[in-house]
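Hi L., both proteins are below.
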Amino acid sequence: MAPSLSIRRATAADAPAVAGVHVRSWQRGYRGLLPDAELRAMRPADRVGDYTFDDDRGPHTWVAETSGGIAGFVTICELDGHAAVMALYVDPDHWRTGIGSALMDRAESEIARQGYPVARLHVLKGNERAMDFYAGRGWAPTGRVRSGDVWGVHVDEVEYEKIG
């Protein structure tokens, strides 16, 4: 695990750093899965206003903070009567340091604390690294795929589920 790592609830002041992690993660992690021109055009400043960290009704976001700043985040919410992991992103410079696992530990702990028997998440189709990560944590594909536009880019996402 990364040295001096802390996990805490995100605040409005974290939005620029979270947007930076979000965009850098997409640009590196989705290379070859989404159009290069779309990935290159993404700017953190365009995303800052999309986050609602100070709304206690949800969604709820936690950030992973190291001595160098925010290195990742996870967002959960209730969706159609079950818990949903809406986002899990780690800055590419911190991949494979345990930050993603620490963030998912926090998300799964919160989901259990809230009493949800089922949790779901979606993974970009073809994102084998993420699929392997979730499978290793007991998440399984449901066989459902959703299609839509995210940040102006058409995506197909595979649904994963974890029970209990």
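That was the first. Here is the second:
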Amino acid sequence: MIRKLLLPLVFLAGTAVAAVLALRAGLPSVLAALGQIGWTGFAAVALVQAISLVLCAAAWRAVSEAASLQAYAAARWVRDSASNLVGFIPAFGEVVSARALTLLGGGSGQSATASTVVDVAVETLTQALFAFTGIALLLGHLDPAQAKSWLGITVVGAIPLLALYSLSRNRKALMAGERLLARIAGLLGLSSAFADGGLAPAIETLHGRSNRIVLASLLHAAAWFGTAGQIWLAARGLAHPLSLADSVVIASLVCAARSAFFLVPMAAGVQEGAFIVVGKLVGVDASTAVALSLVLRARDIVIGAPGMLFWYLTEGRRIWSPGVHA
């Protein structure tokens, strides 16, 4: 019964976080930012995010091809929604997305989890490359001393990303990670996603498919640049147009900051601070930088809340159905 109650409680927590984020940012400020960009502009940002989500789903599918693209897209939607709105639980988005993929026909719990680990590893590696692309484009705005400092900051920010990729290739680390994920899944009543065991060999097999890893990397890279496209669109809507290069600078370094401070739930405050600091370097004033951040926060809420509801209904039907055990 406790596990059955935990699922709706987590869903309600995610819904509450969405509301708190809007209130913490200042609901009038959020609405003002959306009013300035306009619903058409906001819809364009959300559309590009949806395209990026499909690209990420295609990258995930390239790793294993265990189900249809639609199934991977739905599971990826669940992952992003959970990570953005219930990010205070470590690896929660990854766990529930692996489970969702299994429920949507993506094979056994073992195969879905293995593909999730490899997909996350590839995504973090491409994010590190995206961050270095951003710093390379930023150099033109900096003097030598600033350039040296920012290069050092980027290297430090990339360390967790590169470390995660390296850990995904280490059998001992994978076995430890499997135990951690199993505990999280067990707390949520989703332990069957890890019932098969043998996660490390499955991950090693997927990593050995070099052609698929390259394809997944290219798709994830395109999705990262899609984030820059969203900032470019949002800036135009806020009457502060940016070049595509400067949009890449902001997107890459803000995402790097979020990753470097991954222990901060929902990157609360981190994202806004990064927008202000990086934005200043490319000529964006503080108020516009905060507005850009608020547009992305609103995007996460609008896309994430239905994603959490979809996950709740998909998983909840199984947990609450008579005779069905998670």
